[in-house]
Here is the input.
Amino acid sequence: MTDAGLYRTVALIRGFERRAVELVRSGVVPGGIHPYTGQEAIAAGSCAALRPDDVVTSTHRGHGHVLAKGADPARMMAELAGREPGLNRGRGGSMHAADFALGVLGANAMVGAAVPIAAGAAWALRRSGSDRVAVAYFGDGAVSQGVVLEAFNLAALWRAPVVLVCENNGFATSMRTADAVAGSILGRARAFGIPARAVDGTDPREVLAATAEAVARARAGGGPTLLECAAYRFDAHHTWEHAARPGYRSAAEEAAGRARDPLEVQGARLAPEVRSAIDAELDGVLDAAVEFARGAPHPDPASALAHLYATEVG
Amino acid sequence: MPKLSYLKALNRALGDEMARDASVCVFGEDVRVAVSNVTAGLVRRFGPDRVLDTPISEQAFTSFATGAALAGLRPLVEFQIPSLLFLAFEQIANQAHKFSLMSGGQARVPVTYLLPGSGSREAWAGQHSDHPYGLFAHVGVKTVVPATPSDAYGLLLSALRDDDPVVVFAPAGALGVREDVDFAALGPVPLGRGRVHRAGTDVTVVAVGHLVHEALAVAGELAGRVSVEVFDPRTLHPLDRAGLTASLARTGRLVVLDDSNRSCGFAAEVLATAAEGARLRAAPRRVTRPEGAVLPFAPALDRACQPGRAGLLAAIEEVTTVLGEGGGT
Here is the structure.
């Protein structure tokens, strides 16, 4: 992908999240969101290394992954707003956005829960004879979940073509990574014989290059790779913090964290007129997405349990 | 007619479906050597690519099967011990089960979870003896407890063909049951439909799993005195409420025989359904494990917690007192 393409994805996510936070404040998006702001280079770079038929699983902080894999921002915003034309018909919301046609097997609200799901999907794709791969996104907070480490074991044993993208944004809600992780994230993967490397998660180019290498290895039958992508979570853990202000990091620390901004890292690689043309195009796309979400019909309460089962019984 | 054992019926259903549908595969501990016997011969017939021995890693392989299902396979996951369901409850109840609704109908998760030897195997103690089918019915996972070999065959087949997660409990007390079967007539048994094993007019005994055979034995003993109808729900969720209330309309009396804990258990749901939808002539009774029971190790203590014939007989006496006394109370 070109530098302009990477920038467009980073800026798309940044602009989407800014508008989504506004819609939380104005009450259009119920329940709040976990903003992805600051981590955009990870989704943009890693998804740029994928083919349309590859699959991903995402997290509670998943808007970036879903958008970078190609989801329609208007239907995504409508999903956040709980509307019928949303990606999941308003049944999933921010933490469960999915677009199976694009290989987005769903964001997942349980920390780390999707890692074995991605590994299983990857294994099944390889077993069917294809060279498709899966990416499992998860945060630094997930590496202390037993099921994630169990999934590392299975993925390595059975050479599942899965790329394990750990987004280390410095915090599991309020807990600092150093206070939560004994040893290291890379060491946890290496203990299972999984190649692991640290990546600058604020630079889309670096993430793209590292993911492309891991994807090539997975397609060739080499099994999983872990990428620990470091970035700083610019915004709250959840928009709930905007009101509660739990204050676990100082303004000075936040300013320092924001100093390296993936939007500027990638934007600086473009001619100013190219960048502003992309910005203008995205403003149109995203303003239209907000309008679409605001105007989209609410689901009919009579259909509250539609899709509870794929096969109706009785 | 040839005899078919319950255990062999499960083996046969799984083998037949694997032969019919190449997307069916098996995950579980020691399934290649078939410790439970359900998977006997399958690795030889279908290869190690379709019969996968897993590490002792229940949470991961349960969700691994979910991922494989999302990618087009139809896995069966075998758990050697019923209490492993507590460990994998998140992966079944909170993940696999919720994908369909939360994705707005985009996702299908056709996974069958099989529990060969659920409930007490006697003297396997507190952590190997549970019968947690009520938990799955409560959260809305399709839940099946076959009682007979032909139902075990047919319900497992239907579970494997269903596009949703289905938990199949094969009670330890039923695994040895044998039945005369016309093999050519074996086929799928629809989920969600109960079965009247014995028709009667005085009392409906709703019995689950292996206890169906206890209920039939008691019904036989009482023949001539009390006419007992034995209703086997077969699928606990979705429950065949129409079949149940039709039986209650015939008998007007109800006893439930359920090998799970009393409070908030499956028997309570049957009683509630009867209270809401049937006109009973006597207060219903349930014969269950005690409230909040943990099965003790010593065989006599284990048995003391299990519902059985004596309790069922007493309960039938209680609800049919009016018959014996020729009116009265």
